[in-house]
Amino acid sequence: MLRQRTLSALVFAPLVIAAFYFGGMAFLAFILVVGGCCAWEYRRMVGGAGIGLKAWFIPLCMATCLAGVSGRPENLIAALIGGCLILLAISLNDDALSSVFGVTGLVYIGGLLGCLGLLRAQPDGSEWCFFVLFITWANDMGAYFGGGGGGERERAPGGGGGRSGGGGGVGV
User: Fold this and answer.
1) What is the pTM of this model?
2) First and final CA of the chain: distance in angstroms?
3) Residue ranges per structural domain of the chain
4) What does the pLDDT read at residue 51?
5) How confident is residue 157, by pLDDT bands cut at 50, 70 and 90?
């Protein structure tokens, strides 16, 4: 697993750093790709628990992420509210869990990446984005190395990717 993580970091870290550094279209593409991947993974995870989210959840999350790149908080707020209303209106015939997890996923994915876009749009936003990136990577590495040697059982067997409680504690 360490080899795979190292190879991924060697390939993707320069792309992420370049997107954060140059901003503009590179950052926009980064937000779109990450938003789409996050929405796809979220949809897959909740689908594994028997909660169905429609395929249009992915582009809706991506559109919400883009609202933050505009640099105007009111655009992100409007996109979040509008996206939640669209999700609720379309999922009226579905079960309540689909609605709840759809809205939660939209706010989590679209809201967080939208806020990253708002942060990058600030005059010193590039520096703040690099700080967020550093903290995230440090947390991930700490959780990986701290949880790997503990010999604990997995927190969520079959769905948690091998994460243990010890790794979560070290990461925090």
Assistant:
1) 0.81
2) 21
3) 17-121
4) 86
5) low
Strand partners, 164: 154
Owner of token pair 């604990």: 152
Question: Which of 73-90 are b and which e, b meaning 16 or more Cβ less than 10 Å from the residue's Cβ?
Answer: eebbeebbeebbebbeeb
Backbone angles phi, psi at 164, to 5 degrees: -115, 165
Give the pLDDT of residue 7: 85
Question: Which tokens belong to 19?
Answer: 């997107």
| Mean pLDDT of the 62-73 span | 93
CA angle 155/157/163 to nearest 5° reads 45
Q: CA-based diameter of the chain, in Å?
A: 47
Residue type, 127: E
Q: Which two tokens stand for residue 62?
A: 């991506």
Contacts for 67 with CB less than 8 Å, ≥ 6 apart: 75, 76, 78, 79, 80, 110, 114, 117
- Average pLDDT (100-125) is 94
Q: What does the pLDDT average to over 34-61?
A: 92
